[in-house]
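Entries read chain and fold; for instance:
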Amino acid sequence: MKIYLTSYQSLKYLNNYFEKLDRDFLNSQPFLKILISASVLRNFSSKSLMEFERNSYYLDALNLTHIPSKKDLIQFIESGNTSGMENLSHLLLPSEFGGGDLYKDNLINFLLEIGIEKLKIPNTLVNMVCKLSLLCISFLISKNLCPELSNSALLDKDFEIKFNTNGYVIIKNAINTDVIKLAKKELKKIKDYEIKNNISHLYGENFKFQRVYNLLDKSDIFLEIINTPIISEAMELIFDRPTLHDKFYLSSFQSNTLFPGAVDQIWHIDANVPPPIPDWTMRVQTAILLDEFNTINGGTELLPQSHKLLRHPSGSETIDKDSIIKVEAEPGSIVFWHGNTWHRSTANNDTNERNALLACFSTSFFREVCLEENHFRIISKERIDKMPENTKRILGYYHGVKRGVNSYI
């Protein structure tokens, strides 16, 4: 199990828990917050601490006004002063992970880095900090708040290798059958409503395909599905890089229905950017199966290792049929594929429709580049409503608003 935090947002959750424990005491202890973050953050170092002096994300996450000087930090540690920490001692109960030794090496290495002699490291302080760190991590795991702390029994330890090698991974029976049945039932109600009210997004030859957008606003069951731990855990692995910023964001979450008679889709990739296609992971698509995928009802086809070709399929592409993987899996299975992987849905020659949910994720720095300021959270709705059309347009106000997106009741 991963036991370290890897993002500022996770530190913010950690600080929220600090305040649940004892708001006044912990907010008056910037040294303690720094030592806890040193023990639970991956790759924390004295260099990191210096970088945080000019990085407000760390300060904001832990509700700190400033980074104490290294001299003051060393003085606090060498004093071995745990006065007041006893207020928290009743919380430091034995844990399933042990007594906090998981974090001791991390913390001691940090203390040595900042210049404290090994013999002057106070064991009482170290033990207290490590036990408190363990308590906090145990809480975050129990609340399923941080994807880097997830530990899905379904996610094979070789998941990342398989994904990077083949460009896709299929995890069978990843979501409970009852949840899938309820999602399918809710989706049918929404699809029928949108068709009846002439606001449905139908497309393709003879309009045999239907998409439903904005699922997160239309039923709580879709919130439950998108929060399936295995999904975030997989994205954390795929998009991992040496940064404390969030690694990925949800780009879209929609349904995809193939009605009987739907024809083969064209081969395509989801990392739909102009050539040259980058060799790093821009996007990852996940298909959450609400119906069985098979060779008859329009199951997805994938071309293994095609993500390494770094190009779009051409319309005249000849693909060796023996190289193609046809997804055959039960409802509740999840298919993950790289944004560069060639794929397509196939003809639905069954008498029943075929339904799936598509959750697409993208690397987070795209959003930082395109939307450095989150205009629609920091500007009041009243002010946006009064803005000139050109201003709305350059803010991206109309981007991503699909047919039927806000109309379901």
Summary: The two ends are 42 Å apart (CA to CA). The mean pLDDT is 90. The chain has 15 helices and ten strands. Residues 210 and 381 are 31 Å apart (CA to CA).
